[in-house]
Amino acid sequence: xxxxxxxxxxxxxxxxxxxxxxxxxxxxxxxxxxxxxxxxxxxxxxxxxxxxxxxxxxxxxxxxxxxxxxxxxxxxxxxxxxxxxxxxxxxxxxxxxxxxxxxxxxxxxxxxxxxxxxxxxxxxxxxxxxxxxxxxxxxxxxxxxxxxxxxxxxxxxxxxxxxxxxxxxxxxxxxxxxxxxxxxxxxxxxxxxxxxxxxxxxxxxxxxxxxxxxxxxxxxxxxxxxxxxxxxxxxxxxxxxxxxxxxxxxxxxxxxxxxxxxxxxxxxxxxxxxxxxxxxxxxxxxxxxxxxxxxxxxxxxxxxxxxxxxxxxxxxxxxxxxxxxxxxxxxxxxxxxxxxxxxxxxxxxxxxxxxxxxxxxxxxxxxxxxxxxxxxxxxxxxxxxxxxxxxxxxxxxx
Amino acid sequence: xxxxxxxxxxxxxxxxxxxxxxxxxxxxxxxxxxxxxxxxxxxxxxxxxxxxxxxxxxxxxxxxxxxxxxxxxxxxxxxxxxxxxxxxxxxxxxxxxxxxxxxxxxxxxxxxxxxxxxxxxxxxxxxxxxxxxxxxxxxxxxxxxxxxxxxxxxxxxxxxxxxxxxxxxxxxxxxxxxxxxxxxxxxxxxxxxxxxxxxxxxxxxxxxxxxxxxxxxxxxxxxxxxxxxxxxxxxxxxxxxxxxxxxxxxxxxxxxxxxxxxxxxxxxxxxxxxxxxxxxxxxxxxxxxxxxxxxxxxxxxxxxxxxxxxxxxxxxxxxxxxxxxxxxxxxxxxxxxxxxxxxxxxxxxxxxxxxxxxxxxxxxxxxxxxxxxxxxxxxxxxxxxxxxxxxxxxxxxxxxx
Lengths: 398, 401
Known about the structure:
The complex is a heterodimer of chains A (398) and B (401). Chain A is of the alpha+beta class and 398 residues long. Chain A is built from 14 helices and 8 strands. In chain A, strand 4 (189-195) and strand 5 (204-210) form a beta hairpin. Helix content of chain B is 50%, strand content 14%. Chain B has 13 helices and 10 strands. In chain B, a hairpin with a 2-residue loop joins strand 9 and strand 10 (291-292). At the A-B interface, helix 12, helix 13 and helix 14 of A face helix 11, helix 12 and helix 13 of B.
């Protein structure tokens, strides 16, 4: 495995304390964040990095890792203590995302973090009883929570989903299917969007479906371009009887629960894209330093400068958005912009990094190959670039 | 740095009449290739081949029988004598149908194109016919264009007392490495003192002593092709199996470089067109928000951009092919070969990237094939001269425009 933490310290000089030099500092980050960063970094170095290549090849990682991450308090970041969470500000989540992605396997990091989109609807719409029942075991890493929204017939068109839930006494009978569900084959609870009413967003409810419910099946979606360590699944519901008390919030008011995810999910995806681009840049700089013939070339120097500039712009935008979310401001528009920008910067930077690494005729380092394949999803997952543009244009009044 | 276009017209330096329309014969060839693809290149089989990282040997042999491999060779050498223009058409169709298997077949034409530049007729007839008939598979290493001599490590050639040569050292990323019956290997004879020395191309047979294969490279795309590092240890090479690039006249040198870059540009054009076909097909069928994707203006505009990129790639490729075929004795021809490779590979990467975007989550799935086109396109852009290498080459020739 290639060393991943070569030269993080690209942008800020650490002068005030005796933190290791290779730690990113930022006006929004405190010493506490830096300490937390080192904690995540040592977790990644010890628990993930030595095995990342193997898990990528095996296309799965042990369930054990959820327990370890839960024990370290990483899964509960931002949740109230009452549910076993680790109260913190959003920059802890920013730091966690940046560091966990540095395991070099975006699929693993995303699959490990699937609760970050599976639980928020429960926290936002659920009753106290539901929260006590579903949230703590997931934050401890004992159970896996995922979000089930996307369907074979509609990815972008969320409001048009087809999975139905018909009321039958104290139960809903759920029929339909979901696709591209991260961590789906191993999930214990699926926060599922279903149609309980008429067409459109106004007929959607959210149900927490336990995967031991008869009639539920999950199968692996098959080979993908990247995200190999993530078990992406297709879920099928055939006459699944789900108790009415598993419904989150009121009937036909579930769409709001889907919406609560968007802002943070997209912020985190933008941060992942930013970090992947940083890793590609760092590996390039190290490669160039090791090859003086390349270091002498002006075009290479300018290319690196351009890559670094665009990454830095993306990062500042992300940090700005995180700060706004911390202060309860609605920045959905900016988050969508930042996701598009970071995703496209990431794709460009990784592509250019591959060009530079091939300049000597040698084969590509495996890490760069994986980043290339993994990063292509950033402009698709969590809403495609086209959907981001749609949201942005609407928010601009067009 | 004067206006390239102006020079094109006024001085007639590279005024090659480029036919855009296909001739009757070319149309027939295209129909024959399409029929072959429909019969032999089943998408699911291609997916399986790529998963197993297996060279499509059966398909290759059949393509040889039909004359689709190294078809630009003269008939005396077992080719079809249709020039690079015709050959580029065949390659584009093959890769359009399936990028992974198509490019595996097409890249086998690189070696014979280099052997064609050797002066000794007996060497040529010995090898070229066997290759074109499918008896021998030919492997190739990257050739070195001007400007990057210092960057790439090449095996070293040295002269023995009896006049024959000896090859030592290693050669990275040899196409069909360890698997072919015959290789064309770029190598270097160091100058006394400093400097990169002169570049040669050597024909090496696989059965010879002193040639070893180290591990097969893992590649992002083009996975049906075996890329491997070859190592040479006192590997003996006959004098007529060595070609000194600097002794070639400009026309022959253009042909040598042109062959490789035109073939790759044609592969890239095919990949771009194939990815576009998949995206268009999907956009016509898939409905979101109550409308077909193709009815969304933003997506139609994206498809238009993709079409424009493919068109410029195809024109650049065809122009370069025409130049190579007429034995283009112009200094500028070299730049136009590089330019074709650069333009077409960029188009392939961009178009396949956008094709994945149009398919959304499905585009990310292997089952929908287009992710393969994207990986192949990027890998192709990196081999046989990265964009930076090509810019270096074009840049070195700008003064003659």
